Amino acid sequence: MSNGKVVVVGAGNAGLCAALSAREQGASVVVLECAPEEERGGNSRFTAGAIRIAYEGVDDLKKLMPDLSAHEIETTDFGSYAEAEFFDDMARVSEYRSDPELADLLVKRSMETILWMGEKGVRFVPMYGRQAFKVGGRFKFWGGLTVEAWGGGPGLVDALFLAAKRAGIEVLYGARALALIQNDGEVRGVRVRRNGKTFDIIGDAVVLASGGFEANTEWRARYLGPGWDLAKVRGSRFNTGDGIRMALEAGAVPHGNWSGCHAVGWDRNAPDFGDLSVGDGFQKHSYPFGIMINARGERFVDEGADFRNYTYAKYGGEVLKQPGQFAWQIFDSKVAHLLRDEYRIREVTKVTADDLEGLLEKLDGVDVSRGRRTVDAYNAAVCTDINFNPNIKDGRGTAGLSLPKSNWANRIDEPPFMAYAITCGITFTFGGLRVDNQARVLNMEQIPIPGLYGAGELVGGLFYFNYPGGTGLTSGAVFGRIAGASSGKFSAVLGS
Fold it and tell me: By three-state DSSP, how is residue 15 classified?
């Protein structure tokens, strides 16, 4: 008796979780990785490894992170992040368009799935430094994001690949999936090109986990709109929408926010695609503690509208809308210690000066006189009677500006001054395929396509317009695990 065979397309977090889960069902598993081995891991490898989970308190976190020390527990307010809060955040940031069934599944299975990953050898640690600041001798986590994979995205990917190797899962590198193989409407394998040869890999089920279309310049302009062809790509150069295209050709229904994407402030001089030696270091996410100005010398967003977690994924698109597709983030020395580590890497576009006029004159492409008026007006509007606190939405804003800053407003008046040039970096696209609660890909009649499953970035319907930080890896793991279990069970029935 055979237990069947599952073919997984994509070897990032979602694909590897699917492969491991299918293997648990007894299926033999082969993973197709388009990238060469040295670039394996998809977008997951380029992340910081942040993972959003629902938890009730430190006791839940100790299950996930058994190495938490007594000192860390004593000096840290880990708080809680209830399922209801997670669900509400998914609804709120998506302007209440997120598919409620998929969102509910994501939220309710977040903790159990990450614990499962821990059993596979993935280690997790508190996200100190980026999600908690020390105020009054204590750290306080904020924004519903507390946990990251040890070693960031590379550590996560390496741990999953090691687990896959131990499980006897075959990985084919440099294997580009071309088309799904169907028999009377049932998916039975994948046509593959590898080493200049085209061949078929036959299986009982296929899991598509090959990412979005963010690395496809033509599709970005077609679906996201004019100008998006000019965005930098944060991660893998191999996420060109192949899995989505193959599924649509096989009769799948498109779903979700096809004109939307996750896009962030990214170093203006970063390469066109992600650089594995830098990882996610080109991002620049400490803007809540300063201001951003465009080529006209004008602010264009409320930098303190919400915690960074709930604005960063949409502000990249706002930068892309500015003249020349760039902006400058401006800070003074009062907040220098709050800037994330990414501001201190060697590969950074930065200028400094001991006076504001000198700083503004160094901002390439910026109208200096207007920039000075903007900074002066902002400084005059800061409500200094409210205490500054980076761990909460402190209400320290501005008064009288047509574009306010709602929280964390400080006058920019203490030298030395510093500014960082950013552009738009696209992380992943929101549009994709419709799947059900078993991760089965649905056709135009909303009926599952037999033998076809989806996970990761290509699952449409979860994210619209915006994104709660850390949810992508969680979604990939949750739906990857579901897709793997469903495909493994399906293949077992066929194999018997």
Answer: helix
